[in-house]
């Protein structure tokens, strides 16, 4: 724009022409002050009447007239100008026929001197009367002059004050602080001058940013600067919204606001909406991941945008067996995960079945990291927006990498039960070979170890796993419910059970039984007078028990065999009765179940 007085080029933001000082913009506040003062001065001047002595008395403010008279004389003496008189002589009195110079009030004192010269020719009485009249008039004019001077001074002061206020409010070259720029930017915003308001707001922002950066360790200064940054950025945000400037600059400004003050939920929501509407899903994902989980107010405000993390049926912690993890997420979403420490957003595998956690260490292994698995998982919704990364840390510490089998390998002389620690939900399988032959590695098709009655298949009877007589090699493996197999445990046992019943004792026990049941008499003959005698046939092992096979053989006196009845005698349990119900069928000895228990 151009100055209306000198024509110099000026900026729109200038208030005065820097060349001639002419105001470039009108300010209603200043105009109002000047108008009011002008009206008041006019009213005061109109109130004065040269012919009424009481006019001055009506004026509310009292002045020291002598002071103003002295000042007026000083001013009059300093102003040496030509053409003092303003007009020609005129007659002031018809009776006297004298002419008098007409003069302005500003030439009052010069005129008074001329009158004094004219009056020297008058009679003394008239001179005295004329002098009294002039003194009265002089007094009234002096008072009026003093009032006018005072009012003029007040006007100048008022204009100076109003001009100062105007300059402070509007003149940009006087702005030096954040507060100055923020105040004037706010006024411009209120006046809907958004372009100018934005420029001043950005100047305020630079001031606040510099104060923040130079605050150092002074927490009070840093806190003040931080509040100022939020305040001015909020004003800038309002300007952007008023001017419909909804772009990346708008979003970046809000991002700085929420970094400075994490309690401003409304800006979190506005940012989420902007990213959701205008940016790829990753931008919204990265932003939502910055929201603190403990910031419940903001979390609640963003509930329509935040994607819940996956849930696991296995909490982080230490476990004594291998296992699998089941993950779940909200409906219409998928899960991606890694177990090698990588980011599931970029290297994730889509979850379709339980995840096997197999890494372990033994209790005596000092490499603690060896048994830790870090599972990272995310939820991905239908819009491809991701949740935060949820981490689960699992540590598996096994007593052994293989099944825990007791007893250890060795030589044994008593019936011994073999026990294996089987975790809940898992199963143990084993193979066995006699002598020094190594059995095959066990699998799900091998012999199932029954730990207790709760694991016995329907229709079967629980029977503990006993160490077999003689030398045997056994292999064990545990397979859990997810198909995870342990290492294979190998045991070698040599069981030699000492006989508590000798062969002769076994035969005698059979004879004693026949006598007790009156099958024979004291002479060893039955009711047919034939000789019945117990005779050993062989020693067998059935269900890991050793038995003497003893027959009661019936013969004639000539020695001809008539019949034989089979009995079994336990070689280990001397208190056990003779087994009478045993049978031999299809090449196998069959012993009734109720009689198979030994004294072990």
Beta-strand proportion: 15-25%
Task: Give the averaged pLDDT, no decimals.
Answer: 81
Task: Quickly give the structural class.
Answer: alpha+beta
Specify the biggest β-sheet: 6 strands, mixed
State the end-to-end distance: 117 Å
What is the global morphology? rod-shaped
Work out the radius of gyration.
Answer: 61 Å
Low-confidence stretches: 48-63, 78-119, 596-600
Describe this entry's structure for a reader:
The protein has 600 residues and is an alpha+beta fold. Helix content is 35%, strand content 20%. The protein contains 14 helices and 24 strands. It has helices at 28-47, 55-58, 65-78, 108-118, 124-170, 178-190, 194-213, 219-242, 248-260, 265-278, 281-288, 296-301, 344-347, 503-516; strands spanning 89-93, 98-101, 311-312, 317-319, 323-325, 327-328, 334-338, 349-350, 355-357, 361-362, 372-380, 390-398, 405-406, 410-412, 419-420, 427-434, 447-448, 470-479, 489-495, 531-542, 545-555, 561-570, 583-585, 588-590. The strands form 8 sheets. Strands 4, 7, 8, 10, 11 and 12 form a 6-stranded mixed β-sheet that branches. Strands 14-19-18-16-17 form a 5-stranded mixed β-sheet, with no helix packed on it. Strand 21 and strand 22 form a beta hairpin. It starts with 27 loop residues before the first helix and ends in a 10-residue tail after the last strand.
Summarize the structure.
The chain is α+β, with helices and mostly antiparallel strands and 600 residues long.
Topology:
Layout (H helix, E strand, L loop, with lengths): L27 H20 L7 H4 L6 H14 L10 E5 L4 E4 L6 H11 L5 H47 L7 H13 L3 H20 L5 H24 L5 H13 L4 H14 L2 H8 L7 H6 L9 E2 L4 E3 L3 E3 L1 E2 L5 E5 L5 H4 L1 E2 L4 E3 L3 E2 L9 E9 L9 E9 L6 E2 L3 E3 L6 E2 L6 E8 L12 E2 L21 E10 L9 E7 L7 H14 L14 E12 L2 E11 L5 E10 L12 E3 L2 E3 L10
Parallel strand pairs: 4-12, 10-12, 14-19
Antiparallel strand pairs: 1-2, 3-6, 5-9, 7-8, 7-11, 11-12, 13-15, 16-17, 16-18, 18-19, 20-21, 21-22, 23-24
Helix pairs in contact: 1-5, 3-5, 6-7, 6-8, 7-8, 8-9, 9-10
């Amino acid at each position: 724009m151009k100055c209306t007085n000198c024509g110099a080029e000026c900026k729109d933001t200038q208030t005065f022409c820097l060349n001639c000082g002419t105001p470039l913009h009108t300010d209603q506040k200043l105009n109002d002050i000047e108008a009011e003062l002008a009206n008041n001065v006019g009213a005061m001047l109109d109130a004065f009447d040269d012919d009424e002595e009481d006019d001055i008395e009506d004026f509310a403010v009292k002045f020291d007239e002598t002071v103003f008279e002295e000042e007026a004389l000083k001013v009059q003496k300093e102003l040496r100008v030509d053409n003092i008189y303003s007009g020609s002589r005129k007659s002031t009195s018809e009776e006297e026929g004298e002419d008098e110079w007409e003069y302005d009030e500003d030439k009052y004192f010069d005129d008074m001197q001329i009158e004094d010269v004219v009056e020297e020719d008058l009679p003394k009485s008239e001179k005295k009367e004329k002098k009294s009249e002039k003194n009265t008039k002089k007094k009234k004019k002096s008072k009026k002059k003093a009032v006018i001077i005072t009012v003029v001074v007040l006007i100048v002061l008022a204009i100076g004050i109003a001009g100062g206020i105007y300059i402070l409010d509007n003149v940009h070259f006087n702005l030096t602080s954040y507060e100055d720029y923020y105040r004037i930017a706010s006024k411009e915003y209120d006046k809907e001058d958004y372009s100018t308001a934005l420029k001043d707001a950005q100047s305020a922002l630079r001031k606040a940013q510099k104060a923040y950066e130079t605050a150092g360790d002074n927490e009070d200064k840093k806190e003040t600067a931080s509040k100022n940054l939020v305040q001015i950025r909020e004003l800038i945000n309002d300007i952007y919204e008023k001017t419909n400037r909804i772009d990346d600059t708008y979003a970046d400004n809000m991002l700085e606001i929420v970094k400075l003050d994490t309690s401003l939920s409304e800006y979190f929501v506005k940012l989420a909406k902007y990213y959701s509407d205008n940016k790829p899903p990753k931008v919204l994902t990265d932003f939502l991941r910055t929201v603190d989980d403990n910031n419940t107010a903001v979390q609640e405000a963003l509930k329509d945008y935040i994607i819940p993390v996956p849930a696991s049926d296995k909490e982080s912690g230490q476990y004594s067996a291998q296992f699998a993890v089941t993950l779940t997420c909200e409906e219409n979403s998928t899960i991606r995960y890694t177990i090698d420490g990588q980011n599931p957003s970029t290297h994730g595998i889509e979850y379709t079945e339980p995840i096997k956690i197999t890494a372990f260490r033994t209790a005596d292994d000092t490499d603690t990291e060896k048994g830790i698995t870090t599972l990272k998982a995310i939820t991905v919704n239908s819009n491809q927006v991701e949740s935060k990364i949820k981490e689960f840390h699992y540590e598996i510490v096994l007593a052994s990498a293989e099944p825990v089998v007791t007893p250890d390998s060795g030589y044994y002389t008593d019936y011994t039960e073999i026990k294996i620690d089987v975790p809940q939900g898992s199963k143990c399988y084993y193979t066995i070979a006699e002598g020094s032959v190594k059995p095959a590695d066990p699998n799900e098709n091998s012999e199932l170890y029954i730990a207790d009655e709760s694991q016995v298949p329907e229709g079967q009877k629980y029977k503990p796993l006993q160490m077999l007589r003689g030398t045997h090699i056994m292999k064990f493996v545990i397979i859990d419910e997810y198909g995870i197999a342990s290492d294979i445990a190998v045991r070698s046992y040599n069981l030699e059970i000492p006989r508590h019943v000798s062969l002769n004792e076994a035969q005698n026990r059979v004879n004693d039984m026949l006598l007790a049941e009156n099958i024979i008499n004291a002479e060893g003959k039955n009711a047919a007078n034939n000789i019945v005698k117990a005779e050993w046939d062989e020693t067998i092992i059935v269900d890991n028990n050793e038995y003497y096979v003893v027959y009661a053989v019936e013969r004639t006196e000539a020695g001809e065999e008539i019949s034989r009845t089979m009995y079994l005698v336990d070689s280990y349990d001397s208190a056990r009765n003779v087994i009478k119900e045993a049978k031999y069928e299809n090449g196998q000895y069959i012993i009734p179940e109720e009689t198979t228990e030994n004294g072990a």
